[in-house]
Amino acid sequence: MWPPIAILVATVAAVAVVAAPAEGARAFFVFGDSLVDNGNNNYLLTTARADSPPYGIDYPTHRPTGRFSNGYNIPDLISQALGAESTLPYLSPELRGEKLLVGANFASAGIGILNDTGVQFANIIRISGQIEFFRQYQARVSAIIGQAEAQRLVNGALVLITLGGNDFVNNYFLTPITLRRIQFNIQDFSRFLISEYRKILLRLYELGSRRVLVTGTGPLGCVPSQLATGSRNGQCVEEPQRAAAIFNPLLVQMIGGLNQELGSDIFVAANAMQMQNDFITNPQAFGFITSKVACCGQGPNNGIGICNALSNLCPNREVYAFWDPFHPTERANKIIVQTILTGSDKYMSPMNLSTIMALDYKA
């Protein structure tokens, strides 16, 4: 997992005459880290990149795209569920004209809820920068279809935000002694993160977001990188796993309170930890041969370093839960997105994405 930033001024496209979005069409906006970045970091001077083989080996082009995956990532699969094309990275020069009306992906590998998360990756787009780009995006769209239509597009859009994992992995637990560890125990650090996440969600609301999928962290102690460096007997590493077990219920609780305060189910919590726990604890039930070894990597569990052309590479990505030391395979992402779509309240609170789509279609 990876992403804070050099403020880049996005190229403002030549304003062509573009029709307003079709009735019923839904834009999609993505904020977050490497789990949902689909190429923004390709345009930044950072080490948090996925722009070289074998990344993208199972993508339709069989080429790296900047996604931290062998193929499609979670936003791609949600776009498919919406019946839409994938959103382009906000920094892509192709994001102009009618493409803007599809939405945009602002995510940047390495970032966290906190601005001091991921500083080792140099130029990445901190969440404050992503939200500023969202504001710029709205100005660009207003210039094309008018302010009222732009507001309608944003209000009717689906938003996905994925944050939190890096604040633990690439901040709190980065070294045996960190500033955040000195400041906080795990419980208090989790509460601090939640209070900061709440501010971020309210800012999205202020900017017009009205349907926001909010994911928590995955099972942080069970990813191949943790198993390779901190596990005894192949078991999930206790401290990161405990952090995720504290953080995720607090996130669900905070979202429930926020919706109550706003008087509407604006925010929807997706329990990514529970979704991944299912196939981590019983991979065979999902058709995986392992959830402990990454498909691409080196060292124990293929969990050391990064995935690159010199790494070990599994021949069949369909039977691995993890693509690299940190990120799920495309097939695991499909399981996650299917659960976002149809999962029970064990996974989705207060409702799943299919219910959202049905409700909003009627409205």
In short:
Belongs to the 'GDSL' lipolytic enzyme family. The chain is α/β, with parallel strands linked by helices and 363 residues long. Helices cover 37% and strands 7% of the residues.
Largest sheet: 6 strands, mixed
How do the strands line up in the largest sheet? 2-1-3-4-5-8
Give the ordered list of helices and strands. EHEHHEHHHEHHEHEEHEH
Strand proportion: 5-15%
The radius of gyration computed from the alpha-carbon positions, rounded to a whole number of angstroms, is: 19 Å
N→C terminal distance = 37 Å
Number of strands: 8
Q: How would you classify the helix and strand content by structural class?
A: alpha/beta
Helix content: 25-40%
How many H/I helices?
Answer: 11
Which residues sit in consecutive blocks of at least 5 with pLDDT less than 50? 1-23
Summed over residues and divided by their number, the pLDDT gives a mean of: 92
Shape summary: globular
Structural summary, described in words:
With 363 residues, the protein is α/β, with parallel strands linked by helices. The protein has helices at 74-81, 127-145, 147-155, 165-172, 179-183, 186-206, 224-230, 238-262, 272-281, 330-342, 353-362, and strands spanning 28-32, 103-105, 158-162, 212-215, 267-270, 296-297, 312-313, 348-349. The strands form two sheets. A six-stranded mixed sheet has the order 2-1-3-4-5-8, covered by helices on one side. Strands 6-7 form a two-stranded antiparallel sheet. Helix 1 (74-81) links the parallel strand 1 (28-32) and strand 2 (103-105). The radius of gyration is 19 Å and the shape is globular. It holds the Pfam family Lipase_GDSL. Keywords: Hydrolase, Lipid degradation, Lipid metabolism, Signal. Belongs to the 'GDSL' lipolytic enzyme family.
